[in-house]
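Recall that a protein's primary structure is simply its ordered list of amino acids. Everything else, from secondary elements to tertiary packing, is in principle encoded there. The following example makes that idea concrete.
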Amino acid sequence: QLQLVESGGGLVQPGGSLRLSCTGEGFTSEDYAVGWFLQAPGKKREWVSSITSGDDIPKYGDTVKGRFTVSRDRAKNTVYLQMNDLKPEDTGLYYCAAGGPYRFAAVYGTTPDDFRYWGQGTQVTVSS
């Protein structure tokens, strides 16, 4: 059974940092594109970042570019989202998602429909 397990959320002050983890269980994540989405209260699920299948190229939404970094540790089958300079508008439930497996590298998605498997979400609250 393929599962994604997220961790790392919490309460942080504006300007602070958090690192989210997304660990794959039951599959090897390197053949999958992995994305991160934010669902703020009352809003649609918004794409934050992705890492491509095979070659691990990072992709970012405009609102997080320069502040967030996505990476993959293949030995741990885990994708990370390092979030720096957090702002109150970054508050919400963060989901990781996986799409694939893909035979080719450089595949990634930016909409929920691009991803088949989803984690349970981890709450991030940015507040003073």
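The radius of gyration is 14 Å. The longest strand covers residues 18-25.
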